[in-house]
Amino acid sequence: MAAGAGGKAGRLQVRKAARGGWTPAKRAAFLEHLAATCNIAASARAVGMAPRGAHALKKRDAVFAADWAGAIEAAYETLEVRLLAYALGETEGEAEAESEAEADGDAEAELRGAHFDPRVAVQALGFRKRGGAAVGAGAGTLCKRVSLAELEAVLVARLDALDAQAASAPGDA
Fold first, then answer.
1. pTM to 2 decimals?
2. Which of 38, 64, 78, 149 lies in the 20 to 30 Å Cα band around 125?
């Protein structure tokens, strides 16, 4: 029976955590690695867990989801700093020397040693700006569940607004 389901006389049943699961230490190490690399799969493997397990934990633990969003935000900030350094003409060695003074940990060393491609960095930051990642204002918040009728009403309203906008556009009639 699932945790929280009523057992005899409606009493709460509690299960022990699975051995070798997402311990507090593994969670912290995963989030640290994620903040340094922005790579979910690599971060999960770095702590001996599967990426799907990380996603499952994120779905069921709001605190972990919020910490995950913060780690992703930190990774994007690091990417912005590296891109700015590139744009200002800093060499990889100069950027590494500055970040080594602050860095401690394998994930950060991995990031420093990674090849930096400014085109990929710009694409990733564009993805972030378009809302491709749950970061920024409202990061880590849970999605609101709505009924099908509410969703349909919102979509119809948006389609009506687009129709009105298209009708008022000159030259297409």
1. 0.53
2. 64
